[in-house]
Specification:
The chain has 119 residues and is α+β, with helices and mostly antiparallel strands. 22% of the residues lie in helices and 20% in strands. Strands 2-3-1-4 form a four-stranded antiparallel β-sheet, with helices on both faces.
């Protein structure tokens, strides 16, 4: 008959930590502002301007349920405002209500490739 080995009770505490860059202002990349939102486009623009002068641009869209987009200017270097607005409205606007203000992240990933002809 095999002897049972008893192991002493073990108590562990596991901590999982994560971090994320703190951005000023905490608006992410785009703020979608509904027609009936508690903060209007001009007030949102003033808020962003007071926290991060010159970093955001207001893009009016007038397409239900969104009245305007407050867009980080760096994004507009990669995409034209109209293209970005069309994409955001197509993908996110159906999920929003007119009384909402929603911040969105937009990740721009650049890919490059080249084929070299071998002789």
């Amino acid at each position: 008959m095999a002897k049972r080995r008893e192991t002493p009770s073990r108590k562990q505490l596991e901590l999982r930590l994560s971090g994320q860059a703190f951005e000023i202002p905490p608006l992410w990349d785009v703020l979608l502002i509904g027609h009936q939102a508690p903060i209007g486009p001009e007030a949102a623009k003033r808020m962003a301007e007071s926290l991060a002068p010159g970093q955001f641009e207001l893009v009016r869209v007038q397409k239900a349920p969104v009245e305007a987009l407050l867009v980080r200017k760096n994004l507009l270097k990669a995409l034209e405002a109209e293209v970005l607005a069309e994409l955001l409205l197509e993908e996110l606007a159906p999920l929003l209500g007119e009384d909402q203000v929603v911040r969105a992240q937009v990740e721009v990933v650049l890919h490059a490739g080249r084929t070299i002809r071998l002789e």
